[in-house]
Amino acid sequence: MSDKYDVIVIGAGPGGYVAAIKAAQLGLKTACIESWTDKEGKHRLGGTCLNVGCIPSKALLEISHKYEEAHHGFADQGIIAKDVKMDIGKMMERKEGIVNQLTGGIGGLFKANGVTSIQGHGKLLANRKVEVTDKDGKATTYEADNVIIATGSKPIQIPPAPFDGEHIVDSEGALEFTEVPKRLGVIGAGIIGLELGSVWARLGAEVTVLEAVDTFLPTIDQQIAKDALKQFQKQGLNIVLGARMTGAEVKRKLVNVSYEDSNGKQEAKFDKLIVAVGRRPYTDNLLSEDSGVQMDERGFIFVDDNCKTEAPGVWAVGDVVRGPMLAHKASEEGVMVAERIAGHKPQVNYDCIPNVVYTFPEVAWVGKTEEQLKAEGEEYNVGTFPFAANGRAMAANSATGMVKIIADAKTDRILGFHVVGPQASEIVAQGVIAMEFGSSAEDLALTCFAHPTLSESVHEAALGVAGGAIHIANRKKKK
């Protein structure tokens, strides 16, 4: 038996490493276990998000957007940039550089805060003991007063399209292409599918996205979703809804895909196929039978509102528990658990967790949609403002999309905040802050916003909730 810790965290992704740092800052003796290694076998912190998820995908989205703008947007602004070429190798090198810098930075933060980093696969045993197996198969058992499970998730594989690592790939493989595929298929029009499809479409691939559901982005506000779909189709993304995949076979270096839609059986050929149908909790060989931790039939660990499992002193956060699979949600839960272990009583406000699709235009939202409120029978008012009427958006050649604010009809409290357009990921934070403080739409309407800024669209949408927008004609109220 090795040293005993106050807290052992299993997993060093955005939930785990943040929980470990916070626990150490609160004076708790903390260790964090991570099994991830890079291609050279070096220990890597940061989990999916930093290594093969949020960060590398945003690097490719940013670079590909600049390339797309140089090709199609510069001329309109008087910039002549002939023969703009893309160096895929250099782009991937830059992506890797950013990843290396950030993952290495976590190691530095662990040292600065006194967190012990343990390399290997962690398995929870009974009575808060954790068995760690290193890469050579040697097992060491550690003991803790509290264990935080933060093992994250991994891509779902579907039987009709098993990954082969070359032609049929998951989201990780889609970040590693060495050249632009001529024809690219994407299974799933969710956030990951749209982002990865966008990257390669901008770089010249002919992209078809097959989505089994009949509605585009069904969980988001449908006025925003329809606006986004129109923009993506304009960009050349061929998004086929109601397309249920039945098979994929690699022949002569091409992926032959068969699917069914409203017109019957269909076939398509692609050079590469990305399967992005969602993710599932990563719980492989994680729990001994007597650990006391319970999972549901989909592999999610049961926790209460404060991320406590059914085993005393064992907590779980992030993608491995209920709620949206978002890095920032995982981090907030990690901080909450560390604080609770230290005797404080914080809670995560699950009503105020923002969601973002990092396409162009970006799509971001927090709170309720119109569809949800209608289903709940709630009375509400809506204010919208298009970026087409925003001076800064026009100056930036990005005047597409809108800001939409939904407020309670009686109290005027903001219930939902939705954005499709330039920098939506940053603008949505204004809605999150407003809702966190229980703001009314009038509070935002009475706030002074700098001119000219994209954020003025928030001001105008808030004014529009009460029918008082200045820079666009207001809808006449029904008498």
TrEMBL record:
Pyridine nucleotide-disulphide oxidoreductase dimerisation domain residues: 353-462
Active site, renumbered: H451
Keyword annotations: Cytoplasm, Disulfide bond, FAD, Flavoprotein, NAD, Nucleotide-binding, Oxidoreductase, Redox-active center
UniProt main location, coarse: cytoplasm
Localisation: Cytoplasm
UniProt-annotated binding residues for NAD(+): G188, A189, G190, I191, I192, G193, L194, E195, E211, G278
Domain of life: Bacteria
EC number(s) on file: 1.8.1.4
Record-annotated membrane-spanning stretches: none
Cellular component per GO, a single term: cytoplasm
Pfam families xref list: Pyr_redox_2, Pyr_redox_dim
Assembly behavior: Homodimer.
Name of the protein described by the UniProt record: Dihydrolipoyl dehydrogenase
Gene designation per UniProt: lpdA
